[in-house]
Design brief:
Blueprint (H helix, E strand, L loop, with lengths): L1 E5 L4 H12 L3 E6 L14 E4 L5 H8 L6 E4 L6 H6 L1 H21 L4 E7 L23 H20 L2 E7 L1 E3 L17 H9 L6 E4 L11 E2 L1 E3 H17 L3 E5 L5 E2 H12 L5 E4 L8 E2 L4 H7 L8 H14 L9
């Protein structure tokens, strides 16, 4: 099989591309390298430099050959930034996805896997864990942009027959257990790599946003899912779409860990103290986000192989320790 992966130079996209290659598939990565890294693209993958905001260029790229499926990861993804620049996120994420979806429909793509998000479930009204059919209530323009894309895929299926799997991840974390790939955002905003860098003395002390949430220690609770487990779920979703209708699945461990527990895990794994201090809550941050992933488990047999927080942190720590400049020197 030959799959097209957009955003394959990014964190999750590169790991999924590598897993597809490991499974014996051919992979072409389409990316504009605005936030991804050329060095994160697996060596065996073909690379096409394209900006999805350019509808004609997107169409030409999709027209290059007959794809067995398309996996879409390319997007702006900072929740906090989306609260400051809502129209940028709504416009960029939706238009780029719409350009891609339209090109896929035009050129007969039959299976489309979309990297969605738990940010669709922005409110605190529901008890965890969050089911796939829970009320959609985005707490940020980022989450709203992803929901708009999900709706576009519904119509692409109803009108044109392009089946899709919308995979709503919770908190992607960790690194390739073989050390080939890791997490390198610029700027970095994810808690685990920030905490690791603080432990390694590569950044000033960590800030924990909010200590007055209604959780066991007052800090936010998040469901961390290892990026390799996410990759496995994408491959299973592609297989599912061969003989089944479109689907929406939540992807998480079903386990919630607090911000303080992440700090404690990094201290255990690294053997170092993490310098940190309290900071005010961030707009758009719900207190608890934990997934009910029972549907994908029941339908595909998917089961996370790295559910333990220390194991997730250990793979992330090893990669960041071995790559002090990530995929290259910082500007």
């Amino acid at each position: 099989m030959h799959y097209l992966v957009t955003g394959g130079a990014g964190f999750v996209g590169s790991h999924v591309a590598q897993s597809l290659l490991d499974a014996g598939h051919e992979v072409t990565i389409l990316d504009n390298l605005s936030t991804g890294h050329r060095a994160a693209i697996p060596h065996s993958a073909r690379f096409i430099y394209t900006d999805l905001a350019d509808a004609e260029a997107t169409n030409r790229s999709v027209a290059l050959q007959k794809w067995d499926g398309v996996l879409h990861f390319a997007a702006l993804s900072l929740v906090g930034e989306s609260m400051s620049h809502p129209f940028l996120y709504l416009r960029r994420n939706y238009i780029t996805a719409l350009n891609l979806i339209e090109a896929c429909v035009s050129h007969g793509v039959s299976r489309f896997v979309f990297s969605s998000t738990a940010a669709l479930f922005g409110g605190d009204e529901r008890p965890p864990p969050i089911a796939d059919d829970a009320l959609i209530d985005p707490g940020s323009p980022y989450g709203e942009s992803k929901f708009l894309i999900e709706r576009a895929l519904v119509w692409a299926d109803r009108i044109h027959g392009m089946k899709s799997a919308c995979l709503r991840y919770f908190n992607a974390a960790g690194a390739d257990p073989k050390g080939r790939l890791g997490e390198d955002h610029r700027p970095e905003t994810h808690l685990i790599p920030l905490t690791i860098d603080a432990a390694l003395g590569r950044r000033p002390g960590l800030k924990l946003f909010g200590n007055d949430y209604t959780t066991r220690d007052g800090t936010c609770v998040r469901d961390y899912i290892h990026v390799t487990d996410l990759a496995d779920a994408h491959i299973r979703a592609l297989d599912w779409l061969k003989d089944h209708p479109s689907v929406t699945w939540n992807l998480g461990n079903g386990l919630g860990f607090t911000n303080l527990e992440v700090v404690q895990s990094v201290e255990r794994i690294s053997g170092r103290k993490v310098p940190w201090e309290w900071a005010d809550r961030r707009p758009g941050d719900p207190s608890v986000l934990v997934a009910d992933s029972s549907r994908i488990r029941e339908n595909t047999g998917w089961n996370p192989q790295y559910p333990d927080l220390d194991r997730i942190v250990e793979t992330a720590f090893r990669w960041r320790e071995d790559h002090p400049h990530g995929y290259g020197n910082y500007p």
